[in-house]
Write a structure and sequence with these properties.
This protein has 297 residues and is of the alpha+beta class. The chain contains seven helices and 20 strands.
């Protein structure tokens, strides 16, 4: 079986919920979904602020992950990226239920949830395995942070419009050195996100690779590069103002002159629950038909 798909026939008894709790309409919908889960005699749990929003017992992340059979995400792609980091290392399937704008990673729209619930509960679904990235940020010999990402790690300049110097090595071999606004390091999953906007290629999800896409390089020759996933990237920045390492667009680590970021394929993957027989390119064409203007109608 290829890296993309891992079949599974495990019945679901306990569902974990992750939602965009900043939006009241998502909380209201999640409460309605709890009633549906209850009617199907399913247990449900939540973690941290999600549990507070739903009036459920607040569990630790470890307790939450050990007790649930599957995680349902109510929100958009950002909420699903957060869920991937919550369950990292536990190999729990994530079912995305779209309540965001694009919902590229979501499997279902909200009005399809009950239609597919019995199928999911009985274990009649499969999972797509998606590669993740791991980053270690160093200042000299001091480890600043360790982060994992499903979509991308992004190194950017500070608030003022000044270029930063970026040096990239692969397994101790110099790859490129350029001035620009930053560098995106993306997984195949993340290749349809920020990296695509920066001119990076669309990478089919089952390829065991990751890529770099420079952001506004002051060069005619610096271009996106695809790397094998078993390599190590070492990125050093030169800047006279603080920069930033952003993880999946949600968490940030301040970077100073000379700081180094070491990127590897993460030890664990994300598993996306699939119940529809829809291919990657069908999803891509469908989702990208939405325009930027549609978001603000």
């Amino acid at each position: 079986m290829d890296i993309l798909t891992r079949c599974i026939m495990r019945a679901v008894k306990t569902v974990g919920l992750v939602l965009n709790y900043y939006k009241n309409e998502n909380v209201a919908l999640a409460l309605e979904m709890l009633e549906i889960l209850k009617r199907h005699k399913l247990n449900y749990l939540a973690f941290g602020e999600d549990a507070k929003a739903l009036g459920l017992e607040e569990l630790s992340a470890d307790e939450f992950c050990r007790k649930v059979d599957l995680v349902m995400v109510i929100g958009g792609d950002g909420t699903l990226l957060r869920a991937a980091r919550i369950v990292y290392g536990y190999e729990i399937g994530i079912l995305g239920i779209n309540r965001g704008y694009l919902g590229f990673l979501s499997e279902l729209e909200i009005d399809e949830f009950e239609q597919y619930l019995d199928q999911i509960v009985s274990g009649e679904y499969h999972m797509e395995r998606r590669t993740m990235l791991e980053a270690d940020a160093y200042r000299g010999d001091k480890l600043l942070a360790q982060e994992v990402a499903l979509n991308d790690m992004v190194i950017t300049k500070g608030a003022l419009a000044r270029l930063i110097d970026i040096k990239v090595k692969m397994n101790d071999t110099q790859v490129e050195n350029f001035l620009g606004d930053g560098l995106i390091i993306a997984t195949p999953t993340g290749s349809t996100g920020y990296s695509l906007s920066a001119g990076g290629p669309i990478v089919y999800p089952n390829l065991d690779v990751f890529l770099t896409a420079p952001i506004c390089p002051h060069s005619l020759t610096v271009r996106p590069i695809i790397f094998p996933s078993d390599c190590t990237l070492e990125i050093t920045i030169g800047t006279d103002m603080p920069g930033m390492l952003t993880v999946d667009g949600q968490q940030g680590v301040e970077l100073l002159n000379g700081d180094k970021i070491v990127i590897n394929r993460a030890c664990y993957d994300t598993y996306l629950v699939k119940v529809k027989n829809i291919g990657f390119f069908d999803v891509m064409h469908d989702k990208f038909q939405k325009t930027h203007a549609d978001k603000f109608k």
